[in-house]
Amino acid sequence: MEDKISVIVTTYNQEDTIGRTLNSILAQKCHLPIEIIIGEDCSTDNTRSVCKDYAQRYPHIIRLMPKAENKGIQNNYYDCLLECKGKYIADCAGDDFWIDDKKLEKEVCIMEEDPSVTLVHTNWQYYDEKTQKTKRTPFTPSAAYKKSGKNLLEAIVTQTKAPVIHTCTSLYRAETIRKCYFEDPELFRNKDYGCEDLQLTFMLAMKGTVVYIPDVTLSYSVGHNSITFQPNERRQFLFVRQTTSLSYHLARKYNIDTPRTKEFFSEKVFALYMHSFRSKDKTLRDEAYKYRKTWNVVENKKIKVARLIMSNNLIWNSALLSRKLFCTLKLFTQLFK
Q1: For residues 4 and 33, what is the distance between their CA atoms, to the nearest angstrom?
Q2: Domain 2-222 has what CATH class?
Q3: Which residues contact 125 (CB under 8 A, 6 or more apart)?
Q4: What is the pLDDT of residues 191-240, one digit of tens each?
Q5: DSSP string, 91-111
Q6: Can you tell me whether residue 182 is helix, strand or coil?
Q7: Which of 111, 120, 180, 247 could covalently link to 203 via disulfide, CB atoms 3.0 to 4.6 Å apart?
Q8: Residue 161's pLDDT band (boundaries 50, 70, 90)?
Q9: How do the domains of the chain map onto residue ranges?
């Protein structure tokens, strides 16, 4: 590994934003050199052409991965990771962008000073693509910290509305994550887990010290469809089921069994039931029941009521109609406030 920083950029159908992402990385002011590894995942738009143009303009910095069939986020990310030559790795998704040109410098100085630090991350903000307005996230801590990563493991496996550690704000040690990867590649490559970041941050936290910087360094793009913002109930069901399966695997393997984890898996089972309820899909309802058993969740009142409603078609249809009427009335009330 070379004394440099490798930045992974995964992108798919982001012709309008990938240039902004790459420009924000190229603008970094850091005492270490950087390389950018672009994983363009067989886009159907003009994304690859934009990436090719950047690779030709910055051949000493940017490497575009060879064109291949669509891999999915996990294989795309970890194929890029294995190509990284740097001692440190960062990443920035193809629709997000860094807003602090000293982001990498701040993080790498901390890592160079303390070999026990496996990951440094920062605060971030939402960026609405439609309105171009920003909004601070309420989910990240406000004060800087430096702590054993093991103190974050429960929070990582039970994260819900936002990640405890946003990887697009992070810098981590290549040697540490490579060792974890080769010890258990299935953890990182299993497509049934549906994401690439939760297992990465979990393992890095388990292996050392984590440092948080409260500076906002990233604009996280929202206001469009993405892996975590799916308009389809069936897709949302799949995303919840996949990521929760990963959390359950990690919690069980590393003996994280607390009141919070029990509550978390119960919440996720209820979420599965609600997605199946709104989609009027009996197959999803039965799958929700199966995962309640798989995740060892005790049926609480909310889950029981949801299951009973969906056990009878007449009641199910009536409940859906009532929900539709309620949502319509709520919208009507808001419009005429």
Answers
A1: 5
A2: alpha beta
A3: 99, 134, 135, 136, 137, 216, 218, 219, 220
A4: 999 999 999 999 999 999 999 999 999 999 998 644 444 458 999 999 99
A5: E--TT-EE--TTHHHHHHHHH
A6: helix
A7: 180
A8: confident
A9: 2-222, 233-335
